Amino acid sequence: MSLLVNYMHEFGRFQRNARLYLISNALSGITIGILLVLYNLYLASLGYNTDFIGLVLFSTTLGAGLAIFPAGFCIDRYGGKLVQIWSNLAIGVIGAAQILFRQPVPLLISGFIAGIAAAFLLVVNAPYLTQNSSSAERPHLFSFNIVVSLGTTVLGEVLGGSLPGWLRSVPWLMMPLPPPVHWLLAQEATPRSFQLALLFAGILAIPSLIPVFMLSDDRPTHQRQAEQGKNFTISTRQSLRNLLVQITYWRKQIHHTPVRVWLNSPFFVLVLVQVLIGLGAGLFIPYFNLYFVEHLKASPALFGLIDGGANALNALLTLLAPLLAMRIGKINTISVTRLLSIPLLLTIGLTSFLPLAALLYLFRQGTMDMAMGIFQVYSMEAIPEQRRGLANSTYQAVSQGTGAITTPLGGVLIAHFSYAPVFIIGAVFYVLSTVLLWARFSREDT
Question: The domain spanning residue 81 has which CATH number?
């Protein structure tokens, strides 16, 4: 309780823009939770198999990946407020298209565009919080942002699981629409209930725009904007040149360093760890809702409770990770907790007993992810300070990229061989990543 009171006191001390940003994230978290629970189930209710659902997820990730670097340029040029406004509006419009248009091509195109818009919100997060906080405030501010986002997402997951059943029980919502607009909603009760629930989630997100419009204008001044307008091409070239300098540095390191030494370098090993995790996660993480609802026959409401409980427990375990790291070291903490998640994952994927899978699911995510912050800290500390920017970009790129590759592959495997293979292969990737991390860094752990 004292920890919560302390965070509430800190919230009052945050800068105005930071407080507004947190409020906006809290208001949009419920919508995110509903979407996480229901969107794949909605696609399945339309008759799409996991292979096509995986393709939709891949198109979204592809759009986000292609937009990451342009998003950074836009944030530097136009400021965080303007980027957040237009990105949120774009997500609202494209999100509605993803729900109302039910044919394969529109779903793929809208998913791709939604990924582009989401990339701008993803990229603006850390720079905007950093810009609107002092160094003393940042540990509390970033932690508070994570906790608030997780908390409201849990509420959204619980609410989202129950919404379709409630909506389906209202007769007039299931009635046929007039001929001019009959195409807007699905005719069958199940997909329509998912549609209406997702549209309701979009309506819930509208208030989150109010704090964004209230943010202080952080666009460059007219003089600076004019200078940037004249020198935008030069600035872009300079940014690209800086990136090439970083890449050249690593190429020289590879060229002048023996292959054995390079393969054993912290940077290469940490990148490989991220690759293995991304490959494993992409196979099964996006399909957990389908697994519980379609395969284990849980209701969407029950899965919403299970997933919300898993996220809540994950948040609590994350608070314990630093204490564990102080006792046994960072690498041991990461390795032990991740290895504990493997038997839980395999049991979930191989059992047909819903209560057992639901119970273990509560702990699998927490044991796998509770040391994520510790891993992020160590992955930065192991790299020279002047190379951490490129290293972090590389970590994010390979993790997201490999996940995007295996997500459609996981959908195909599930469609042809059911769920067991993706859980087994994913567990193998997780074990390899953990063993590699421990074998390389355990002796250097402090």
Answer: 1.20.1250.20
